[in-house]
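Per reviewer request, we include the raw input and output of the structure prediction for the construct analysed in the revised manuscript.
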Amino acid sequence: MKITETKLPGVLLLEPKRFGDDRGFFIELFHARKYEEAGIAGPFVQDNFSRSVKGTLRGLHFQEPNAQGKLVQVMVGTVFDVAVDIRRGSPTFGQWVGVELSAENRNQLWVPAGFAHGFCVLSESADFLYKCTDFYAPGTERGVAWNDPDLAIEWPVSFPLLSPKDAMAPRLKDAPVLPSYEG
């Protein structure tokens, strides 16, 4: 597995090895010991799966408390995936990184706890898999506006399909609860 540090410390792009021949291919999607050696320590306690149509934007989501680290991957289709550092006091507070994840490249993105996460579907549809380090806790679910001008995320869509909750998310500077940087 190839591991690439992004511009945000702790956010990693992972490229699992692909073994293939004329019959198809094999990829090891998760191996606890290898991921722990890469700095991605679980335990992972919940797997989530979503399917979304082209133009859908989900995010920017986080939980506080009950912050979740997320290992994300696309099984079908293509998305533009984003992680934003929202930890108060962090030297990279308000900075973001975006990568294309697809069924073709089979890359994964590690989004540590304390970061907001979102993605936009570029293909006709996309099937998206999340491995999470904490359980979903509806009372601690939070969001940041996908189009916050202070973040200036370069989304590949101008008028995305949004949930009502995502359409009403506050700007980062107005978020009532944010995680703290542990340094």
